[in-house]
Amino acid sequence: xxxxxxxxxxxxxxxxxxxxxxxxxxxxxxxxxxxxxxxxxxxxxxxxxxxxxxxxxxxxxxxxxxxxxxxxxxxxxxxxxxxxxxxxxxxxxxxxxxxxxxxxxxxxxxxxxxxxxxxxxxxxxxxxxxxxxxxxxxxxxxxxxxxxxxxxxxxxxxxxxxxxxxxxxxxxxxxxxxxxxxxxxxxxxxxxxxxxxxxxxxxxxxxxxxxxxxxxxxxxxxxxxxxxxxxxxxxxxxxxxxxxxxxxxxxxxxxxxxxxxxxxxxxxxxxxxxxxxxxxxxxxxxxxxxxxxxxxxxxxxxxxxxxxxxxxxxxxxxxxxxxxxx
Length: 326
Prior knowledge:
There is one protein chain. By secondary structure, the chain is α/β, with parallel strands linked by helices. It has two domains: about 1-65, no CATH class; about 80-210 and about 245-325, 3-Layer(aba) Sandwich (Rossmann fold), CATH 3.40.50. It is built from eleven helices and nine strands. It has helices at about 1-35, 55-65, 120-130, 155-170, 180-190, 210-220, 225-240, 250, 270-280, 300, 305-315; strands spanning about 80-85, 90-100, 105-110, 135, 175-180, 200-205, 260-265, 285-290, 325. The protein has a nine-stranded mixed β-sheet, sandwiched between helices. β7 (about 260-265), α9 (about 270-280) and β8 (about 285-290) form a beta-alpha-beta unit. It starts with a helix and ends with a strand. The relative contact order is 0.11.
């Protein structure tokens, strides 16, 4: 009789565990979809995880984030030309080409997740003051570019390659500039497509897709394991790529061109060890500049003098030396 009772309890416990595991996977499948598939423009966007109240976090746990497709909110004040490109995946990309008088080359610019090229106009103006023309690109699914899906820098590497080839055909010197997801896309694109830019300027790139996801759960005060692993698995499965293998820190080992990396020490979306791992793995000349009081935000807008000094110094060197600037 006792064995029968324990057998029933065991079956019940196993059944409950299986139901919980299935339920968690359904929820995380939904999260992964909403995280990588943008809703129609006009949908109310979910706030930053760290700003949500307890009730909002509980609701978000079941519904997933709401991310309307990002739209460009501002146009350049200077004369510009709209450029349409196509990546190898046949996706249509929109970019703005703004010429500079200095003739020092072209900086091709890539924004972060849920951002657009219009949010990099301040940085573009600073590059032009240094004598560089700028090509501001909307990554796939963002702004004026086609689609509504993002792979957080994986397939966006094809966007980087398409924009690089366009810039290289028209200019002798090409610099690639990227923020967060844009920086990750650049790090993948350089070895994956054999690109040979003259230099890279990268801000707050994440080291691995898994760590970036863990950081997000931490900001929401939710358990990281196994939630992050499952979310990354489903995101990759839905979008047909190995999301767990999407690791900019690994791509960095094959990057041999000069690189300037910048990072805000109060950033909680990308943590300091991630940036330093990428920096150590870079194979060529490199510099790392810290911004003591900045978060995951525009360094150029918040500390313009220091940003311009660092970028100007780096791009003026023919062979940047290895250094860390605290």
